[in-house]
Amino acid sequence: MNTTRKRPFDPEVYLQSIGASRQVQAFKKRQAIFSQGQVADTVMYVQRGSVKITVVNESGKEAVVALFGPGDFFGEGGTAGQTIRMGTATAACQQLF
To answer: What is the four-CA torsion angle of 62, 66, 69, 71, rounded to 10 degrees?
Structure first.
């Protein structure tokens, strides 16, 4: 019988372990974090505040498709093979990443 228990994933521990590739950035309310169509080359983590992801269709209509808050990762499409951003991420209130 296997008695080893996995520890739950702790994003703060993970972020401390990635070292030099980590950057902390602050964004003002309504400031774009990334835009639909840009290269998908980073994953973000919300330390505080919130993020809104929107998409715009061919006829110009915008839809909110996701909301993220403290403790959430977003922008991970690049790790799943997406080469460009499928939506726009905007700071919904002041925050740090």
So the answer is: -140
- Structure tokens given for 60: 């110009």
Residue range 17-33, pLDDT digits in tens: 776 567 888 999 999 99
CA dist., res. 97 & res. 88, Å (int) = 16
What's the number of CA atoms in the CB half-sphere (13 Å) around residue 71? 2
CB 22 within 8 A of CB 43: no
In angstroms, rounded to a whole number, what is the distance separating the alpha carbons of residues 40 and 83? 5
- Beta-carbon contacts of 48 under 8 Å, excluding residues fewer than 6 positions away, are 70, 95, 96
**What residues contact 56, with CB distance under 8 A and at least 6 apart?**
36, 62, 63, 88
The model's pTM = 0.77
